[in-house]
């Protein structure tokens, strides 16, 4: 018999040994593909940091062979890190976890088909990217025009993620049918809520790419409407950041407490946070478009207030995650109001990486609230402040958490032992330190008005940049690139040496570190609290999310459709 997270139900086939081995292999494929993409993306990052340190390396002949321009590099960096790395890791992670949690056997042929489709989409999109035929940045803003091959590859990738979503929702529904009246186990709850949120979120991008960008880049329409395209993009583009964040939250809620020696605070509260993300993640996209013309202020203000609302489940998470860390540290003998922090297992690389990721997110989240405030937005919008913000959210809260997860997940999937745990620990500190320096330098430059997405170190802009007297923040940014490069070398040494080492243990001897809860939700819906009962119907909550999105996007999009502009494409780089 296999150790499982919940008892198998008689009516459903549980995970047998062969399927589990296969599922682990698939999860490993997803994770390794993800981290290969990140490797390339992260090698480009330090060059960009040098740019924001005033050093232009883009004229070096050797580099010129590989990338034609700053913007080709920036497009690769954004696409590989933010779109490819995240999506592959998450698709593996959030299929594996619910299958284990429910102990339900997924259709493995379908699961492999999905992985191969996603990889085919990636390879398709990679060709024009590498040939400088899709230098349109990771936001695909028209009228910047890329090769149709790029948009088609990207569409296939997103479609594949929706297949994973469908498979996980399907697993959950079959479990529900076999277990009437039972409360959905919390890891599954979080995964299904995230996948359903992503399904509602992805609609905007799908319509933009399939309905506008692909026909336009194929020459079937005489132009494209940039404002409508941007609006549809941010329909997806804001909630996509929660699609990157919530899988990290799953680890912070369900696994990190156990790893640190403590318990999850409350299953009911965890479910409330995810239910709120499901309903409120999408209808906020206009906070990326405060500066866009032809969108009524009323709607911008409504999206602003909804943005503040969707910060609430993150605040719930902050307190509840802190409570579970405190529970762990006190169980280990920690004392004092803040002194307990020292008793966290700081020698454990997986725990340390994730706690540091959380610390970075305190600043990342606070910066996000600044961005969202219409009074502050004009000061920071389109400046270096914004990359400062998102390297301590997606670049650290998400990325460093996934790195920390890999430190237990790879041994768990493969039976191999983590190579050089002290090196792993060092990589987490170097990443955190590097990103903190980076964030300081970039936020600072942004406040002084240094633009983002600008090759400020190039001769054409050098004089203006030099005259801004930004010596210290420029230095910090340049140094951060070096620190992050070291962090990446350390991390990939650990990861690659671990993957190449021989299998020594039974993989299950590194179990999934599922935490108990101080306040559990219970097993039976009828005996459960009102909160647990109200948060159980995830499909109804998804329906509510859809209605809300239509309410706050309908009146924004309708006039754009009625006044569709045909703007011809441009290639700048
Ligand atoms: Fe953001 C722009 C607003 C969160 C990513 N964001 C971006 C872009 C990216 C991004 C990639 O309103 C750039 C897009 C582009 O290219 O143009 N963001 C927000 C708000 C939040 C937020 C309100 N962002 C994220 C997350 C991201 C992400 C998460 C990725 C994963 N963002 C904006 C706005 C813009 C924007 C505007 C447009 C700016 C412009 O002008 O263009 C909120 O969700 C944040 C809520 C978070 C908190 C923090 C909770 C803290 C926690 C940690 C607790 C720590 C503990 C540790 C317990 C309230 C949960 C204890 C430690 C011990 C040692 C004990
Ligand atoms: C953009 C550096 C890692 C996602 C940038 C920029 C810099 C930079 C300086 C701003 C470029 C500009 O606005 O012109 C670095 C360094 C990294 C790193 C030094 C570490 C080695 C990451 C990671 C992620 C990420 C891990 C996400 C998982 C992005 C995205 C952009 C960006 C989405 C925006 C691209 C755009 O504006 O089109 N990076 N980065 N970066 N970075 Fe990173
Ligand atoms: Cu946003």
Describe what is shown at a glance.
This protein is an all-alpha fold. 69% of the residues lie in helices and 1% in strands.
Return the string of H and E elements. Answer: HHHHHHHEHHHHHHHHHEHH
Low-confidence stretches: none
3D shape: globular
Query: Whole-number average pLDDT?
Result: 96
Distance between the termini: 59 Å
How helix-rich are the residues, as a percent range? 55-70%
DSSP strand tally: 2
Find the structural class using helix and strand composition: mainly alpha
Please state how the strands of the largest beta sheet are arranged side by side.
Answer: 1-2
| Proportion of residues in extended strands | under 5%
Q: Major sheet: size, sense and barrel closure?
A: 2 strands, parallel
Radius of gyration: 23 Å
Which ligands appear in the coordinates? Answer: heme-as, protoporphyrin IX containing FE, copper (II) ion
Alpha plus pi helix count: 18
Describe, in plain words, how this protein is organized in 3D.
The chain is mainly α and 573 residues long. The protein is built from 18 helices and 2 strands. It has a two-stranded parallel sheet. Helix 3 runs antiparallel to helix 4, helix 7 packs parallel to helix 9 and helix 8 packs parallel to helix 18.
Descriptive keywords:
mainly alpha; two-stranded parallel sheet; 2 strands; binds heme-as; binds protoporphyrin IX containing FE; binds copper (II) ion
Could you give the topology of this structure?
Layout lengths: L16 H35 L9 H6 L3 H33 L5 H23 L17 H31 L7 H32 L8 H35 L3 E3 H14 L16 H35 L17 H24 L4 H4 L4 H7 L2 H21 L6 H27 L11 H8 L4 H30 L16 E3 L10 H6 L2 H25 L11
Parallel strand pairs: 1-2
Helix pairs in contact: 1-3, 1-4, 1-13, 1-16, 3-4, 3-5, 3-6, 3-13, 4-5, 5-6, 6-7, 6-8, 6-18, 7-9, 7-13, 7-18, 8-9, 8-18, 9-10, 10-12, 10-13, 10-14, 12-14, 13-14, 13-16, 14-16
């Amino acid at each position: 018999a296999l150790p499982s997270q919940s008892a198998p139900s008689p009516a459903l086939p549980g995970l047998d040994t062969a399927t589990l081995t296969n599922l682990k292999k698939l999860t490993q494929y997803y994770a390794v593909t993800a981290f290969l993409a990140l490797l390339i993306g992260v090698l480009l990052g330090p060059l960009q940091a040098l740019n924001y340190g005033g050093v232009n390396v883009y004229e070096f002949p050797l580099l010129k062979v590989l990338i034609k321009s700053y913007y080709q590099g920036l497009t690769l960096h954004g696409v590989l890190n933010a779109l490819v790395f995240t999506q592959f890791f998450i698709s593996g992670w959030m299929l594996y976890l619910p299958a284990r949690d429910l102990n339900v056997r997924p259709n493995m042929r379908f699961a492999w088909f999905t992985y191969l489709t996603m990889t085919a989409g990636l390879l398709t999109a990679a060709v024009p990217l590498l040939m400088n035929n899709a230098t349109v940045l990771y936001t695909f803003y028209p009228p910047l025009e890329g090769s149709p091959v790029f948009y088609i590859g990207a569409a296939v990738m997103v479609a594949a993620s929706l297949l994973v979503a469908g498979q996980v929702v399907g697993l959950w529904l079959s479990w529900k049918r076999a277990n009437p009246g039972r409360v959905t186990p919390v890891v599954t709850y979080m995964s299904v809520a995230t996948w359903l949120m992503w399904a509602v979120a992805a609609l905007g991008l799908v319509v933009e790419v399939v309905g506008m960008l692909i026909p336009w880049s194929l020459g079937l329409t005489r132009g494209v409407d940039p404002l409508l395209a941007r609006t549809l993009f941010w329909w997806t583009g804001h909630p996509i950041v929660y699609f990157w964040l919530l899988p990290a939250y799953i680890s912070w809620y369900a696994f990190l407490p156990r790893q640190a020696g403590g318990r999850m605070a409350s299953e009911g509260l965890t479910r409330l946070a995810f239910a709120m993300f499901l309903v409120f993640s999408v209808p906020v996209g206009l906070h990326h478009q405060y500066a866009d013309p032809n969108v009524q202020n009323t709607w911008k203000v409504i999206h602003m207030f909804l943005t503040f609302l969707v910060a609430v489940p993150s605040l719930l998470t902050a307190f509840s995650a802190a409570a579970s860390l405190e529970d762990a540290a006190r169980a280990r003998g920690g004392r004092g109001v803040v002194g307990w922090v020292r008793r966290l297992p700081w020698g454990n690389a997986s725990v340390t990486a994730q706690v540091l990721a959380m610390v970075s997110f305190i600043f990342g989240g606070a910066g996000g609230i600044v961005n969202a405030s219409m009074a502050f937005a004009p000061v920071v919008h389109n400046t270096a402040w914004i990359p400062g913000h998102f390297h301590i959210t997606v670049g650290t809260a998400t990325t460093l958490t996934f790195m920390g997860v890999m430190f237990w997940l790879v041994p768990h999937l493969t039976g191999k032992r983590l190579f050089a745990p002290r090196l792993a620990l060092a990589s987490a500190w170097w990443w955190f330190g590097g990103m903190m320096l980076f964030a300081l330098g970039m936020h600072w430059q942004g406040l002084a008005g240094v633009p983002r997405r600008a090759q400020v170190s190039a001769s054409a802009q050098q004089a203006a940049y030099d005259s801004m007297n930004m010596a210290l923040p420029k230095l910090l940014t340049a140094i951060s690139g070096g620190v992050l490069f070291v962090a990446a070398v350390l991390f990939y040494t650990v990861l690659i040496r671990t993957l190449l080492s021989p299998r020594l243990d039974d993989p299950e001897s590194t179990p999934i570190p599922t935490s108990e809860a101080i306040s559990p939700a219970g097993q039976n819906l009828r005996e459960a609290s009102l909160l647990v009962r109200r948060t159980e119907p995830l499909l109804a909550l998804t329906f509510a999310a859809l209605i809300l999105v239509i309410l706050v996007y309908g009146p924004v999009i309708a006039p754009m459709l009625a006044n569709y502009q045909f703007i011809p494409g441009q290639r700048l780089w």
